[in-house]
Specification:
globular, single chain, alpha/beta, Rossmann fold
């Protein structure tokens, strides 16, 4: 019986919604990171992203945890416990990129009066949060010696091949565009939420009606071709589930 899990939370894919829904299934102390246990302060984002910190958890804390969440790459599962069942949600790459650009424009004063293209052209944002980001989540390796997923990385065919191999090892794959189907598959496979779960619940959703030109969408797709291919592969895997 599978009873311990690793949720790979790819940014802007409905992962925050899923993390909230996990709280309807598991007690707070059984989810990593838990406030009051793993968070050192209300603004302690490192608990959700720092790889060495996660791997350094004390054995007694690990024994409490039934589901790990966070913006961690796939390879952390193998380092933490290869027996953990894995779950993830991917999103159409252009829509994911636009959503994260809106988030930065909304939250950071320096971008507030600028077009989304200006946020996209910001080098750190593009490298750390946009450029083939979903592929990076699944191809990052221990030898890269990165402490978090928000790192710059050049993706090539070899890294893309590794990302495909790792994505194929995920036990339950979903896509944002069919999020309700993902929840239904998780319920069927693991028996979660026996009394039901709200498929229409959404957290951290961008609502601004900022214009996005077709030419800009095409540019995003061209710049993130590995993510486009990985997303299509995810859809193929879902059809096989």
């Amino acid at each position: 019986m599978i009873d311990r899990f690793f949720f790979i939370h790819v940014m802007k894919t409905a992962g925050t919604t899923f993390a909230r829904q996990l709280q309807q299934q598991f007690p707070a102390e059984e989810i990593y990171p838990a406030r009051g246990i793993d968070w050192r302060s209300p603004s302690d984002v490192e608990a959700y992203i720092n790889i060495p910190r996660l791997l350094a958890l004390a054995p007694e804390r690990r024994s409490q945890i039934r589901v790990y969440t966070g913006h961690f790459p796939f390879m952390v599962r193998d380092l933490l416990d290869p027996g953990l069942a894995t779950l993830t949600v991917l999103r159409e790459p252009v829509d994911r990129t636009i959503s994260i650009l809106k988030q930065f424009k909304r939250r950071e004063a320096r971008f507030r009066d600028l077009p989304l293209e200006a946020v996209y052209d910001d080098r750190p944002i593009f490298r750390f949060f946009v450029e083939n980001h979903q592929t990076k989540v699944f191809c990052l390796a221990p030898e890269d010696e990165e402490v978090a997923i928000n790192c710059g990385m050049d993706i090539d065919d070899a890294r893309y091949a590794r990302a495909r191999e790792n994505l194929a090892r995920v036990d339950a794959v979903g896509i944002t565009e069919a999020y309700g189907d993902f929840l239904a598959e998780v319920r069927r496979r693991f028996g979660w939420w026996p009394d039901g779960v709200d498929v229409d619940q959404r957290e951290n959703v961008s609502t601004e009606d900022w214009d996005v030109a077709p030419s800009f969408r095409a540019r995003i797709a061209a710049d993130n071709r590995y993510d486009v291919e990985l997303y299509e592969y995810a859809r193929e895997l879902i059809r096989r589930q």
